[in-house]
Amino acid sequence: MLSWLSDWFWQERLWFPEGLGWADLEDRDGRVYAKASDLWAVIPLALGFLIVRQIFERLVATPLAALLGVTEKVRLHALYNPTLESYYCNTTKHPTQSSVENLSKLTGYSVRQIQQWFRRRRNQDRPSLLKKFREASWRFTFYLLAFIAGLAALIDKPWLYDFKEMWQGFPTLTLLPSQYWYYMLELAFYTSLLISVASDVKRKDFKEQIVHHLATILLISFSWCVNYIRAGTLIMLLHDASDYLLESAKMFNYAGWKNTCNYIFIIFAAIFIVTRLVIFPFWIMYCTWVYPVTLYPPFFGYYFFNGLLMVLQCLHIFWAILIVRLAFKFLRSNESVEDERSDRDETDESGEEEEEKEQEKQKTKKNGPLLNGHPVFNNNHHKAE
Length: 385
Description:
Blueprint: H1 2-9, H2 12-15, H3 42-68, H4 82-90, H5 97-107, H6 111-125, H7 129-154, H8 177-195, H9 206-225, H10 229-255, H11 258-289, H12 300-333, H13 348-367, E1 370-371, E2 374-375
Helix pairs in contact: 3-7, 3-8, 5-6, 7-8, 7-10, 8-9, 8-10, 9-12, 10-11, 11-12
């Protein structure tokens, strides 16, 4: 059964144009080609990234955080209560007003104490500022080094300047050592991010991040197996061109360097929009979607590859909307840039203000509008009444 599935999955008509196949990618005459078996090297490399990350965060990122002045906010811990803890873990972290009143009767706490307990308990689960800084530092370091390495590997290649050159001689494109390591390290890094996603900082676009990591891993793996390596290196370089700027903006934001963060973010937003919303769809995808059809008839691998690129482009549009919204907010009001995807700590004072506002709304609904604390009655009656 497994043998039949393997034969069906790897059949040549799915992954190659008509007249071409796996035999064209066998090593010969000193020419080396990419092979699916090479991808097994990603597993130890990904585990190596996880180990190096732990060392980096302790020995480099933590001292750097202290140097830049990253300071932790003092968080008040919720006192342990088995009833509230069970409700928090098994039911919901955000109880309704009726649930708060029921919990108040069960525990003997006042309604305000119950609400305060849940605020403090939610804050305990939020990642610390140092954790966020160390994660951003690690990603910044990799993306910057990957961009420099990718640029060095492609700077003298003709397909960096003429995208149509990526298909010149396809599929018998010789694998270069620089391409091998660029691919393996990028793939191992995204695999390590997928492995560590459960322990990393969770943001509001968590699901989109999972989709992005999976699409990226599939895209890199597939392009390697069928020798779309030239296209793959261009796509990876294009993504690395802006990612390190975003991570550096986060680092300065966590350190409280608001102006530096804002200016880096504006530069990032400009590069992101140019690379992801202009170059990627109108140059890269044109040369993977439109131009190949002039060379050979479409096949399943062609649709599969471009389908993954479309998934990435949809994510680019989603993130571009968030980025533009933040950029306009800064340019119009000169406020500091805040990551809308991250949860903020809840304070007892802010919680009490929200409760008072909610109580005022309830009173307004019940008694009508108030004037100086007294209900305003409608005295606009006609004299005939």
